[in-house]
Amino acid sequence: MNKVRDDAAEAVADIPDGASLAVGGFGLSGVPEVLIRALHEQGATGLEVVSNNCGVDGRGLGILLAAGRIARVTGSYVGENKEFARQYLAGELEVELVPQGTLAERLRAGGAGIPAFYTPAGVGTQVADGGLPWRYAPDGTVAVASPPKEARDFAGRTHILEHAVTTDYALVRAWRGDRHGNLVFRRAAANFNPLAAMAGRVTVAEVEELVEPGELHPDEVHLPGIYVQRVVRLSPQEAADKQIEKRTVRA
């Protein structure tokens, strides 16, 4: 039951080329930075990433992106990452843009064993009708476009079929965790982390504070250890390394 690994390098050592990854975080909040850096050093390439966004230039998934390690992204937000936009428009990266709530539910459904679900989100747009550019050709034409989705009416309202997401691995960050893999997330850093953890077949969690089994009250646990296979304890310096994407202050 002891799921703790010696370090991040050991925890991601077996992630192969071409693996699919669900990665927690939103902007720079709750991003598993240490695991991402370890994966960058490990060298896996051709990765297919499912994450709300793909980091920023020089941080988070942006590190893997800049190194050319990511082949495909399923997400909902390009954000401030200029390299992400450049690779997408240049035809170097395949991108499936998904409404944010739909992406969250696709991950949750994957973890819950639900193969697909209907939602009204995207009806009347290219999300439903198809034609969203997934990959551009070098000349700027669309090389791969999204297919149309099955539609069905419920209570007089049209819904489209969305498929659940499961991935080979998941990388997440938690505030506290125990050796059995039970996790607690802090405030906004929860974001996509519990959902990504549910979707991964092998979930690796970096935790800012590691406690012994029994120290977390069952009512505190946000994600039970059944969803987590590996735990990495962060050093105080790693736990404190939290950047702010945009700072707004009073004059």
If you had to describe this structure to a student in words, what would you say it looks like?
It is built from eight helices and 14 strands. It is an alpha/beta fold. It has one domain: Glutaconate Coenzyme A-transferase (3-Layer(aba) Sandwich), CATH 3.40.1080. Strands 1, 2, 3, 4, 5, 11, 12, 13 and 14 form a nine-stranded mixed β-sheet that branches. A hairpin with a 5-residue loop joins strand 7 and strand 8 (142-145). Helix 5 packs across helix 7 (193-199). The N and C termini lie far apart (53 Å). 41% of the residues are buried.
Entry keywords:
251 residues; 8 helices; alpha/beta; 3-stranded antiparallel beta sheet
Counting structural domains, the number is: 1
DSSP helix fraction: 10-25%
CATH superfamily: Glutaconate Coenzyme A-transferase
Element-level helix/strand string: EHEHEHEHEHEHEEEEEEHEEH
Which strand-content bin applies to the residues? 25-35%
For this structure, the CATH topology is Glutaconate Coenzyme A-transferase
Q: Radius of gyration in whole Å, from Cα? A: 18 Å
Q: Describe the largest sheet.
A: 9 strands, mixed
CATH architecture: 3-Layer(aba) Sandwich
Q: What's the number of extended β-strand segments?
A: 14
Output the CATH class name: Alpha Beta
